[in-house]
Write a structure and sequence with these properties.
13 strands; elongated; alpha/beta
């Protein structure tokens, strides 16, 4: 090997070593939880990497139940959930956990029937479908809501989440709000004992099962229905109007929400002619007292960006950003994080 080749090799080794050193110096912040906000969180993390290259976020989309468990076990730096933590779970924490709402979104009822007609459904009919009381697509109750639509004489295959899920929490909260029977027999939670159906893991799993199963019906966050080109129903809201899921209809629902100081709230079956009835917020779960000062500082810096500039990216992919008044309240809460 001649001198020039030796110089080139030495330069290459130095370059690689420098790259490795730079990568190892990058701080890694770990999070886990809800699949509902995974698309917007991924966008935020990618965008923020350009603003602060010294930090990288690793987020595992495992479901809200998993996010709550991992933040309690302190195996992650933050959890994520579409259902607020219960008092019982908060009491298990080693310190005070803050609920940081980030965006709101729609849970849509998606289905797989021939021709993918745009259906209309109401709460009572949905309850009977998911209780296993309505078993055919051409049932009289579905037909009455969809005059002029040819419905197949086909079995309905219910698909629900198999994991602890904030999307399930939002969906079952809605069913509980519109049906006393559902509230008493099944209830609202991240995990419930489903009366019938198949289970899929994550929004991805439910969307995949609906897509590959003729006659299926399920519930997913709006973006997962759009990504998989699945039909989804217009739903009858509390004012008796049929409304399609959209940023505008979720924003209308969010505007009616009564948001307490701890930010644990529901917004299902909201009043108003244009409010979408199965709307929900999603939260980051963060210890008020951070164990690692350096990570805590970086996490707070990210949250301040996400709740301002990051909110402007939400509508691009189908989420409703927090109104400015709520953003400011949440920023005040972020300022209480200690590191």
């Amino acid at each position: 090997m001649n001198t020039i080749q030796l110089i080139r090799r030495a330069a290459l080794v130095a370059l690689v070593a420098g790259s490795v050193a730079g990568a190892s110096a990058q701080m890694l912040i770990n999070g886990a939880g809800a699949t509902f906000p995974y698309p917007i969180y991924s966008k935020w993390f990618d965008s923020y990497a350009k603003i602060d290259p010294s930090v990288r976020f690793n987020y595992q989309s495992i479901g809200s139940g998993g996010g709550q468990k991992q933040i309690l076990a302190q195996t992650v730096d933050f959890g994520a959930s579409d259902g607020p933590m219960s008092d019982e779970n908060l009491d298990k924490a080693s310190g005070k956990i803050l609920h940081i709402p980030t965006v709101a979104g729609a849970v849509v009822v998606t289905y797989n029937i021939s021709g993918s007609p745009k259906l209309k459904l109401d709460g009572a009919t949905l309850v009977d479908i998911f209780r296993g009381k309505i078993t055919k697509w051409n049932d009289a109750k579905i037909a009455a809501l969809n005059e002029g639509v040819t419905l197949p004489n086909q079995n309905i295959i219910v698909v629900h989440r198999s994991d602890g899920s904030g999307t399930s929490y939002i969906f079952t909260s809605y069913l509980s709000a519109v049906s006393y029977e559902w509230q008493q027999e099944v209830g609202a939670n991240t995990s419930v004992k489903w009366p019938s159906g198949l289970g899929g893991k994550g929004n991805e799993g439910v969307a995949g099962l609906v897509k590959q199963t003729p006659g299926a019906i399920g519930y997913v966050e709006l973006i997962y229905a759009k990504q998989n080109k699945l039909a989804y129903a217009d739903l009858k809201n509390a004012d008796g109007k049929f409304v399609s899921a959209s940023i505008e209809s979720v924003t209308a629902a969010l505007a009616t929400a009564r948001i307490p100081d701890d930010f644990r709230f529901k917004m299902v079956n909201a009043p108003g002619p244009v409010a979408y009835p199965i709307s929900g917020a999603t939260w980051l779960l963060i210890y008020q007292q951070q164990k690692d000062p350096a990570k805590g500082k970086k996490l707070v810096e990210f949250l301040k960006w996400a709740l301002t500039d990051g909110e402007k990216l939400a509508s691009e992919i189908g989420y409703a950003p927090l109104p400015e008044a709520i953003q400011q309240r949440v920023l005040n809460r972020v300022a209480e994080i200690k590191y």
